Amino acid sequence: MQALFTDSVSYGFSHPLAGLDHLLAMFAVGLLSVQVGRMGWAYIPAVFVLFLIIGGVLGMLGQTIPQMEDGILFSVIALGVLIVLQLRFVPWVALGVVAVFGIIHGYPHGTEIPVVANAFQYIVGFSLASAMMHLIGVGIGTICDVFPNARHIRAVMGGALVGAGLVMLVTIKGFF
């Protein structure tokens, strides 16, 4: 039996919110987009969500992407390092980074779709939840700009992301 629209959207919406690694990565993309400047806050999260959807569809189609969970944890660390270093790289590089991480994060959403969920509605749900977390990162990153040491504040948040990613690697994956 097909789930109601609200059921499929809520399944999708709740999926990225259930994993700390996903939450931290979405927040990091928002912070990174503010750091990039040149209105990066407007297009970098959008590109991430586009590739998140592509990754989700690949997962739904049964495509295999090896070491997916490791990639998710490493994306938290990598995004945190980029924020710590306060690199103001060319926006195209940022777009490439978030596109790859978008596919990596979208894939598990696609592979873990509930049997009763409508695929399109499920995608709408996880895309909205991810965009919401991006906007929270953009908002906090932008609020930092009112302080004279905004770059340092964002760098500390990036360090916290790196630390959280490392803790998850140790506790979840048993690395190191």
Task: Report the order of strands and helices.
Answer: HHHHHHH
Total domain count: 1
- Uncertain parts: none
Strand content: under 5%
Instruction: Note the total helix count.
Output: 7
**Helix/strand-derived class?**
mainly alpha
Average per-residue pLDDT, rounded, comes to 87
By DSSP, the count of extended strands is 0
What is the gyration radius calculated from CA atoms?
A: 16 Å
**Spatial gap, N to C terminus:** 46 Å
Main sheet? Answer: none
Please give the share of residues in helix.
over 70%
Oligomer: single chain
Please state the overall shape, judged from the principal axes of the Cα atoms.
globular
Give structural attributes.
7 helices, mainly alpha, 176 residues, 79% helix
Description:
This protein is mainly α and 176 residues long. The protein has one domain (5-173). It is built from 7 helices and no strands. It has helices at residues 5-17, 20-36, 40-60, 68-85, 91-111, 119-143, 150-173. Helix 4 runs antiparallel to helix 5. The mean pLDDT is 87.
Helix-strand blueprint:
Layout: H1 5-17, H2 20-36, H3 40-60, H4 68-85, H5 91-111, H6 119-143, H7 150-173
